[in-house]
Amino acid sequence: MSVESRSPSPDGNGETSAMLKIGQVAQLVGVSPSRIRLWESERLISPHRTPTGQRLFTVADVRRLERIRRLFDSKSMTAVGVRQALGADPDHPAEPADSDNDANPVLGARAKALRQRQHMSLRELSREIGMSPSALSSFERGQSKPSIGRITQIAHALGTTTPDLLGVPAAEESAVVRADCRKRLPLGAEGVIIENLYESSTVLQSQMVTVRPGFGSGEPMTHAGEEFLTVIEGEIELTLDGVETIELRTGDSMTFTSTRPHSYFNRSPTTARIVWVNTPPTF
Q1: Cα–Cα distance, 277 to 112 (Å, whole number)
Q2: Under DSSP, is residue 39 helix (H, G, I), strand (E, B) or coil?
Q3: Which of 56, 86, 116 is the C-terminal boundary of a domain?
């Protein structure tokens, strides 16, 4: 699903009408502005945007936010569950977190085998990563395709890395990686491509991440180490700890500790390309 930024409708005086700013909406809904930005990064709400990027909300947006708050408050739900509970409507189409398009039965079987070798039950793993047992079982049977973030959560809970879980071949000890010889991680995730920029045993796990408009990592990821990234084309939003959203544009760079829950999303109308480095290679 592609999430597009909507332009506010000006009134006859060239000013937006019946629109509220994020601070006003936060007071009405009873949450912090950072919480609303988090819900936006999780694709639960899609506010209007001014030409300068300022968020504006309609009355319908406020009602939806109130419902989101009630769902989080009254039920032990993840963002995935809230999206499913909200369903789809014309202004805010819901996005299923796990798609059955291009589902990878080999990946699911590999995860199941690794889980069983560690004598971990399906329910134990589901609790560890915050995924329902039925959704996890569907993934292991090759009937659904989790998001990048979810695959990473599964890999780390099973004591491995994302490339290893995906079955990426071991590095061939080459110091140079030609542009047309990069190994692509077989994520099967729509809208996101991750290519390795290294072919040697190294403490630097460097990757080229390409993110189409309206797509992102999905569930937040956490793992050991530190990360560096630089945006070489387009722009992305990076959310840390579920509350802090940073907008990164072409030429911007950032470093952070990988143990902080992090996710990314491309809300711009153009494809983003990021050089992303993890150390040690724990992604």
Answers
A1: 29
A2: helix
A3: 86
Nearest to 209 by CA among 146, 152, 267, 265: 265
Q: Which of 58, 86, 114 is a domain's end point?
A: 86
Same-domain check for residues 113 and 178: no
Tell me, yes or no, whether 100 lies in a domain.
Answer: no
Q: What pLDDT digit, counting tens, does each position of 55-106 carry?
A: 898 888 888 998 888 887 765 566 767 777 776 443 444 434 444 345 567 8
Q: Contact at 8 Å (CB) between 235 and 275?
A: no
Reported as a single tens digit per residue, the pLDDT across 243-279 is 889 999 999 999 999 999 999 999 898 999 999 999 8
Distance CA 69, CA 79 (A): 11
Answer whether the bond into residue 269 is a cis peptide, omega within 30°.
no
The CATH number of whichever domain residue 159 belongs to comes to: 1.10.260.40
**Position 164: which residue type?**
D
214 and 256 co-located in one domain: yes
- As a whole number of Å, the end-to-end CA separation of the chain is 25
Its pTM stands at 0.53
Place of tokens 């690794």: 114
CATH number reported for the structural domain that contains residue 253 in this entry: 2.60.120.10
Instruction: Please check whether residues 78 and 124 belong to one and the same domain.
Output: no
Eight-class DSSP state of 191: T
Residue-wise burial string across 107-117, b where 16 or more C-beta atoms lie within 10 A, e elsewhere: bbebbbebbee
Catalogue the long-range contacts made by 175-182 (C-beta closer than 8 Å, 24 or more residues apart): 175/199, 175/200, 182/208
Q: Are residues 154 and 249 in the same domain?
A: no
